[in-house]
Amino acid sequence: MKLKQLIVNNFRQFRDKQYIHFASEDTQNVTVILGQNGAGKTGIFRAVLFALFGAVKLNQDSDNVDVHLINEVALQESIGKIVTATVELEFEHNKINYRIVRAIQGRFDGEQYLQLNNQQCRLDISSDSTENSIDDKDMITATISSIMREDISEFFFFDAESLQIVSDLDESSNANKKIQEGIYQLLQVKDLNKAISIATKLSNRIRRNVVAESKDNNLQVLEQQRTKNEEQMQQSQQIIATSEQEIIQAQKELENKKQLYQSSEDMRVLAQKINNYTEQKQQLQSTIDQQIMYMTELVKQGSSQLFSDLLSDIKINVATLRKDSDDNIPQTVLEQTIKDQICYLCGNKLNEHPEAYQHVQELLQKFKYSHSTAYLNQIESGINEIENNHDSYIETQAQTFKKYNDNCKKQKEIQYKIDTLQEQLKVNDNDVKEAESLGKSIQRIEQNINDCKLQVQKEQERVKILQKKQDKLNHDWLISQNKDNTLRAKKQQSYLLDNIVDQLNNIVEDYGYQCRQKVQTYTKEFFQRFIAEKDKNLIDHVEIDRNYRFKIYRSAFTGNLSQGQYQILSLAFVMALAKVASEGRSEMLFPLFMDTPFARIDGDNRDCLIQEIPRTTSQWILLLTDTEFTAAERDSFVKQNTVGNIYQLNTTSNQGTTSIEPIKDLNSIILRGENNG
């Protein structure tokens, strides 16, 4: 397939008709399209894919963003009217010329853009002997798909800056199924798998017919058992596949979270210190609160200490009052003496000294009751308590206030440490909580991985058991089927189809293995050709498993590949796939259409690509910014003499429109930063 010409009209930035002729000569097969950001380079890229497949969005477009294909200036100049954007693409394939014209309509009501979904399309096909036109969309899609299927187009039409096929297929990542499907399509493995599926379905249909026609009820039972057992095996295998994908995805997520968790270690250490100091501060505050309560009680208890300076005078007054009191002997003492018949003053027994008993009786009868003695006793008791507790109270008070002051000082010191650490931390509480939650997330993901592994192990054991059961059921089914001679022909058909399926499976396995071996070899060879001399030893070899997941072996280089090196490796892989798919032909099947090809690639590697890719592919189309196409790239292209056509995208005075201007000579291009004088 070689692109010949592109015509755009009112498409994206391109107002009215604009033309590009693609270089397709054997020696000059490079087309260079230059333009600043926003000038419409990706619009050219988008126009080719729109013409071929009716694609409105590119892979790099966000899902939640509407892509408008119709030129906005044309819409604004025709408010309320239908405006049509058309793309016409001419290309050649197997010496047959194709011209596809695709259109889309829309309008602008003064506030909103409305893009209609009813695309119009026509495909003209011509050769030396015939000419034909197709208007039916399904037939057009089928014809284009027979040349290039949309699911493999991203291997040859891509934004090089986002080219990450190899990293998407890295053995440690969740392999991109869409890329795998494209590889199967390109290598025609999918066609073989489709043949296997058709043969299997046909065999099953014949087998069901055999069962339906058989009078052997046991055959029907066995068939039902086989079908049920096959379904159970498929369910288990699906669970295994799903669990393995979940494990791969979880491992990738786990690695990312571990890296984030590791990067947040300093923050978490500071946060933990702050938490520790905060707990100390809270504990200290609790102690201070208790001390304040205790000091409050001390103040209440210490009110009696205010009388300490008056105690000597009070003692003298108490002694004088006691001397003058009528009730020096308390009434209770006299009453207890009469009751116990013992004098509690002298100790004499009253029953042996009648006169003493009589005296006590007289004292009791003459007793003038007064509270003075009790009051005096209480006063003396209070004086004694004040005197006895004075020193200890003063000491306790001093110690308590000292501890309170010390704790307050410690609290300030802790608060200062907290403030200092928070100043070092320089993040908010949500960031700290998020970092702390990473640890729990890691534990959860690890548990999920273990659960998935256990699930895989469990289902694998179940598949083994079901397979043994299936083998026995197949054996019993064949024995039962052989009982009915009238079904021999159909049995033979089913048997032959099963053999065909087995042979096709072997072919797929062998062909897939051979393809992978070739792709591995070619990928290394192309990488060696595309990479600069200084980087040729980056990769020892690559290994590609049956699911086309990559494993890169590096002997002399231990670090990770840069994005530019990964881009070159991905390009080498694409070229390897194309070479395997093109074996038996004189040239590669498809052109190489690259947007922003050099953004991540250094100068030496750019020179290698400029030298080698035109020799590798039948056609190379580059969309370049002024930062990618410098004097070095221009001189390198001039030296190789492979550029056939050059175009400059110039933004016009009307905002939103771009003109496509052909340039005759590379050397006539004035590059950014060059001295024009």
Automatic annotation (TrEMBL):
Domain (Rad50/SbcC-type AAA): give its ranges: 6-288
Q: Which InterPro entries match?
A: P-loop_NTPase, Rad50/SbcC_AAA
Domain of life assignment: Bacteria
Q: Which SUPFAM superfamilies match?
A: P-loop containing nucleoside triphosphate hydrolases
Q: What are the GO BP annotations of this UniProt entry? A: double-strand break repair
Q: Does the keyword tRNA processing apply?
A: no
Q: Which UniProt keywords apply?
A: Coiled coil
Coiled-coil annotation reads 212-287, 418-476
GO molecular function per UniProt: ATP hydrolysis activity
Family, similarity comment: Belongs to the SMC family. SbcC subfamily.
Q: How does it assemble?
A: Heterodimer of SbcC and SbcD.
The name under which this protein is listed is Nuclease SbcCD subunit C
